[in-house]
Amino acid sequence: MLSQRNLSINHQSYVLSTAKKLFISSLLLLSTNIAAAELIEEVIVTSDFRDASLLDTAASVTIFDDLTIKNRQAKHLEQLLNLAPNVNFSSGASRGRFIQIRGIGERSQFIEPLNPSVGILVDGIDFTGIAGAATTMDIKQVEILRGPQGTLYGANALAGLINLTSNQPTEMTQGSLSLGAGSHGTKTVSGALGGSLNNAMNYRVAAQSHVSDGYITNDFLKRDDTDNIDELSLRAIIDWQASDDLSLKLTLFKVDADNGYDAFSLDNTRNTLSDKPGHDRQESTAFAVQSNWQANEQFDVVSLISFADSDLEYGYDEDWAFPAICAGQECDGWEYNSEDNYLRDRDNSTLDVKLVSKQPLSFLGNNAHWVLGVYARQQDEQLLRQYTYNAGDFSSNFDTENRAIYGQLDTDITSNVSLVTGLRLEGRKATYTDSDGVAHSVDENLWGGRIALQYKPNDSTMLYGLVSRGYKAGGVNSDSSLSAEDREFDTELMWNFETGVKGSWFEQRLQARLSAFYQQRKDIQIKQSLVQSRDDSNASDFTDYFGNSGKGRNYGMEVEVNWLATEALSIQGSLGLLETEYDTPLSTTLDSRDQAHAPRYQFALGSSLRISENLSWTADIEGKDKFYLSSSHDEQSESYWLLNTNLAYSADQWTLSVWGRNLTNEDVIVRGFGGFGNDPRKYYATEPYYQFGEPRVFGVSGQYNF
What residue numbers bound the domain in which 488 lies? Predict the structure, then answer.
């Protein structure tokens, strides 16, 4: 006889399967009436050295515009990532702060100093490793560059780069005000205003407050807001044409997130028993000054200075329960009570100055455009860990300096063949000290770059081949209990081989991008965990550390399609396929298995239908294969398909939307642990524990544009 849980699962599977069939059938039915359509708008990539059309960029890039963000009702970057092929994220916090591209990226951070694999920029300000700041307030465009960005960004972009760009100042006075409300106590208020201060200066200011009770019910405290979201974002931009040949832009940015963190349950449900729920806080104050000096007819001098001061606090109830959970039961005396809290103060400053050619120079008889730049980055991070299980606090200092010189040459070999060559030479110094007596310093020289060949057989098609080299700096493990052999780990290197085709066909009603890649990794940095029983309790201690696997490879493909089927209907889709292998594993537990957080497939299929002049409807299905949750155990997520929708009514300057995400209420695992027990009622028997992502949510929002 089937259990009640199995019956429930089968019922949900039937409902989801039916929803999928109805959705796909509706797309096919609507797309049979093909009529003359408007052209697909050109998309510009802004994160490279020069702005360029997406279809003319020799790399695998995904771009989300402001309309996609609105239709998705996304308030944070994490709510967009599933739409990009071969992009995944790990939570273990209030937001998906740790991002993986093509299976490469970190999954968590505790006391260890971290060298990120995915770079994150917000209006040119470096927030790499602290993606909690990546809210979508007044964001115009999100760009995701896959593959190593050795020339463009350097040591912290082995896997790729994510660039968020906000709406910029304009001479015309314009703005918007929006209000939103949804399930689980979700409320959003945002507004933006821009215009001209005088003939030479424009401005834009924006603010957003987003709050939610979260998706957890704490049964012990009788509360439903212990995993809440409370995020305030502020931005001001001033664009000044200082003279005929000099323009300056000042960006001021602040994020204040005071989120709760009460995500893990001893029963693997959304009902927790924590007596002291945790928190996930980030207060970042940042600025950037960008300048463009038209020095002469040959080149411009483009510079960026940025600084970000971030105070982060991350803490949780380690036992996930209340002290008397075993009172009056046979397990009485087995329980423990512990809290863990991490306070980080991070200062990050960058300087980037480059010369960008305006007139081509003659290179081997061909015209070539060039870029030559210097880069400096200074980051100081101080950590204080307050752990109730230990008698004293733990503290550490981690300081890094990066200095680089880089250049790129874009050469027109023929009228339809061009060659892009780039090289970056980077010196990195890092020092680490902590209260346990661990001290480490490193001074290393790194290099990366790319060679790309582009061929345009006609105006609508571009083919490219790309070879790029990326690097991720080595470091030190902070736990003093590790052996000297396990204390340090080496720099990871990667060669990326990629080919692809991009184009726009059928009178620019069909746009497609296809890329295939093969990445050879050397000295792969892999996070491991040692689990040991405590001497004076029944709980377990974790020692996280990084080690190097000799070699490995990641390969696959990405497909993205945008089709204007009729004047009223457009269809978008993406597919990512990924295979990951270890050639020489770190341990026997990693032999003959995929790398962590690397699903073998990931897809999204959506449609936008203009029902009438004022009414439009969007719907999409997103899906992902199961994947290993860590490199230190064999627990996996489950594969899933999610259904989302948005119905919008527009009249004059008003827009009213009714929306829903995860309509079939699937349980999506966004973080997981295995190999230990934490439940005294089960005498700490080893079992997996999961953090679940967003359940079914509904909402309504309204926006007034002026």
Answer: 31-705
